[in-house]
Amino acid sequence: MKRTFILFLIIFILPFICLGINPDREYILKPDAIGLDYKEMIINAGNATLKAWIIDPKTDTQKNTTIILAYPDAGNMSYFTYHASIFASHGYRVVTFDYRGFGESSDFEVERMNLYHDEFIEDLTSVVDKVSQTYKTDRIGIWGLSMGAVVAVQAYEQTKDHVDFMILEGLVTDIKVHASRLKQAKDVEINLPTDFQSYPQRLRTIDIPVIVFAGTEDTLTTTQDAIALSEEMKNMEVITYEGGHLRGFQAWEPQDFGQGYLARVTEFTQSF
Asked: In CA terms, which of 15, 133, 213, 260 is 20 to 30 Å from 219?
């Protein structure tokens, strides 16, 4: 019953609370609760320490590929344990971590109405550095969701020597436009980062393979945005699905949570 409730929470509620930074300090599901082998790691990020979980591939068909999850602006990494299990069960190593102020990472005073904090960029950069040192023969990808996708873009300059590809969903292509949409649709005003005007150009400097998942019913990060960007960036592939913001994992076959998503990621990672 508890697992059913947690899966319900993850699938149906999480996409709708990502309208302001909303950390959760309590873990709702650790990997070993669903039979995953994992290790805990503490990663230094400037003056902060981050809690991370390393979830090793569950099958013998290891892909020598590590995926680092940069999740959205609510919850903590435990909200994505089921998501991680899908990849781990098909040969991927998955690294999840908590930004400072989330889960069991260092205390941090979060400004709820920020789009993100610059410190989250430092957090992701530090995780990439540690993972690249630990798994030197693996290809490394960042899986960025909504706020996590923005953070991944902003961190690219610092991580590009170690990151081989990106998987992005709920991708903001223009921060000012995104803020306007939030105001109009949800009556939410976010604090714009100081460098928001440079973000579109930073996005276009990414020169590694990128796959973007975009929902046809997502009015905040639209399929039109993603497709228009992909016409400029030939290294970008767009996968559209029927559904709203961050609903990609349940978009194809609801009874097979994440399998359609996994299949498209695997096709993508095998293409380069």
From this structure: 260
Strand arrangement, sheet containing 236-241: 38-45, 48-55, 93-97, 65-70, 139-145, 165-169, 210-215, 236-241
What CATH number is associated with residue 66?
Answer: 3.40.50.1820
Number of folded domains that form the chain = 1
What is the Cα gyration radius of the chain? 17
Three-state secondary structure string covering the chain: CHHHHHHHHHHHHHHHCCCCCEECCCCCCCHHHHCCCEEEEEEEECCEEEEEEEECCCCCCCCCEEEEEECCCEECHHHHHHHHHHHHCCCCEEEEECCCCCCCCCCCCCCCCECCCHHHHHHHHHHHHHHHHHCCCCEEEEEEECHHHHHHHHHHHHHCCCCCEEEEECCCCCHHHHHHHHHHHHCCCCECCCCHHHHHHHHHCCCCCEEEEEECCCCCCCHHHHHHHHHHCCCEEEEEECCCCCCHHHCCCCCCCCHHHHHHHHHHHCCC
Whether 5 shows a pLDDT value over 60: the answer reads no
Q: Give me the residue label for tokens 């344990």.
A: 81
37-84 confidence digits (pLDDT tens): 999 999 999 999 999 999 999 777 889 999 999 999 999 999 999 999
Ramachandran quadrant class, 64 (left: phi over 0; alpha: psi -120 to 50; beta: rest): left
Rounded to an integer, what distance in angstroms lies between the CA atom of residue 258 and that of residue 271? 20
Take residue 187 and report the two structure tokens written for it.
Answer: 């009556």
Burial of 127 (0-12, 13-18, 19+ CB in 10 A): buried
Structural domain boundaries, residue 168? 2-269
